[in-house]
Amino acid sequence: MKNIKFMIVGVLFGIILVKSEVISWFRIQEMFRLQAFHMYGIIGSAIVVGIIAIQLIKHFQLKTINKEPIIIPEKKFHWGNVYGGLIFGLGWAITGACPGPLFAEIGSGFGVILATLLSAIAGTWIYGLVREKLPH
Amino acid sequence: MDIIKQPWPWYIAGPIIGLTVPALLLLGNKAFGISSSLRHICAACVPSHISFFKYDWKKESWNLFFVLGIVIGGFIATLFLSDPGAANINQDTIRSLKHEGVRDFSGLLPQDVFSFKQLFTLRGFVFMVLGGFLVGFGTRYAGGCTSGHAIMGISSLQWPSLVATCCFMIGGFAMTWFILPYLLKL
């Protein structure tokens, strides 16, 4: 089961999301109302650590545990980054959760958030259905 | 144990979240990103001849194991590593939310907005169902969410991810400041 290791990383990630209250609707409100540094500190320091880690990986040309060269997928700009980004932002402030916290909230016992997750899956499905008609 | 059971500060949580990026790369060349899992679920369960869902999702199944792990992590953290209680948020936020009509501040989510009882009210439907739809539609349209763009994308210095992240924030500010007060009154 080569995927178990990714599940373990997910478990640790889920624990962090709960313990730092990232899954709290109130924390997201506080962030968007500019009334606390907490969420900015979390996202900001995660990015700083991520930048340093990727620079180290590139500098030392580190390989995966299976000795493969590490490839970082390129993100090409399209207007979906803007339009989709704005739409996601609207939803993020309503639900108080991006996709990661949705999963963590369900695990934390907020069963009703399963409805939100199913609706998010439906949103992704509708995007797949209409994407050729959308500006990108 | 007391320290573990208290909420963890940003300077502990943020760097550990950041370490997810190299962890997934080193363990198997996986780019950190969570909203993709929603696409894989569509591809696995309801592809419906839509070209966007016709790909070998099994090759991406690591992502489904990852999000399953997040569910389990949420369970473990809540059951064994937490003292139940309210999030320790700014009093100003509480004051404005009370003013806008939120009544319950006893947990991580307001029960008077997010609960099975509220699901079939207009307000509950907007917050849980419509909100979720916007998250799922928007993230896929944007090509990623907070993890894929804000953390993985910016960490690898890709400017489209910075654009997307700025748009996430603009959308969130617009909703919180201009629309949410009306939605809370529904």
UniProtKB/TrEMBL annotation, chain B:
UniProt subcellular location: Cell inner membrane
Protein's UniProt keywords contain RNA-binding: no
Membrane topology, from the record: Multi-pass membrane protein
Segments passing through the bilayer = 12-29, 62-81, 120-142, 162-184
Give the CC-aspect GO terms.
plasma membrane
Keywords attached to this entry: Cell inner membrane, Cell membrane, Membrane, Transmembrane, Transmembrane helix, Transport
- Which InterPro entries did the record assign? Sulf_transp_TsuA/YedE (IPR007272)
Q: Where is it mainly found?
A: membrane
Family, according to the entry, reads as follows: Belongs to the TsuA/YedE (TC 9.B.102) family.
Q: Mind telling me what this protein is named?
A: YeeE/YedE family protein
